[in-house]
Design a protein that fits this description.
With about 160 residues, this protein is of the alpha+beta class. The chain contains 4 helices and 6 strands. The strands form 2 sheets. Strands 3-4-5-6 form a 4-stranded antiparallel β-sheet, sandwiched between helices. The chain has a two-stranded antiparallel sheet with strand order 1-2. Strand 4 and strand 5 form a beta hairpin.
Amino acid sequence: MHVASNRSSLGILGGAVLAFTAFGLTGCSAVETLYGSGAEPRQHEVDSNAEFVAGGSAEENLAYFTKQADDYSKSNSPIEGRSIVDHFVAAGFDKTAMQVSLDKTALSDNADSIFASVRINSQCLIAQFEVSDRTYQVDIAPVLLAGESGYCLIGETRPIDW
């Protein structure tokens, strides 16, 4: 049985701040990055029958997003921004609504984890993939700065221009 983690949107939002300000310098695990040291994320089973809900909300697509993250983590594809984005796009998510973190740190080291998000209306589906062991976390968070200029991830992200 495979499980995915899901916590409150404040936890993942705080984790995104940590990820883009200190990640790569601290060596945190995926759970620590998303939820803080000593945190235990809630667990839920991956629904292998989940389907994409075209025009649906983030909540309606969470199970499918989680299934796609699980499928990706089990694949042989590298834990890199472009291939993660391509996987979610092939699964039906809107590329123009996505953000992805950088593959390299400011010191040109490989990132320890990669964040990918999909904005759906006023919410974001966010996944974090741990490079070393291919584990992942998923959650829903509110869009930062509501309106058309809102975004899901904090800090510098990779342009999705392919």
